[in-house]
Design goal:
There is one protein chain. The chain is 19% helix and 23% strand. With 69 residues, the chain is α+β, with helices and mostly antiparallel strands. A four-stranded antiparallel β-sheet has the order 1-2-3-4. A hairpin with a 6-residue loop joins strand 2 and strand 3.
């Protein structure tokens, strides 16, 4: 399946900070919702740095594991 460039236009993406983030904006990650097949993730302290892109199924499994622990 071919992915359109617009689908992963991350510079114009609205990033959401984790609700578990410390109030001082320290050690935290941000995710970009709204991408149908992948979940973009970045470090909130370095928004211009690298971004990771996980398959939606893998990200969901990761979150479910965190909830269990």
């Amino acid at each position: 399946m071919k992915t359109s460039t617009r689908e992963y236009d991350l510079p114009s993406t609205a990033w959401l900070k984790s609700s578990y983030s410390a109030g001082d904006g320290g050690d935290c990650l941000e995710v970009a919702p709204g991408h149908p097949t992948h979940v973009p993730v970045r470090d909130s302290k370095n928004p211009l740095g690298p971004k990771l892109k996980f398959r939606a199924e893998a990200w969901s499994a990761f979150i479910e594991n965190l909830k269990r622990d």
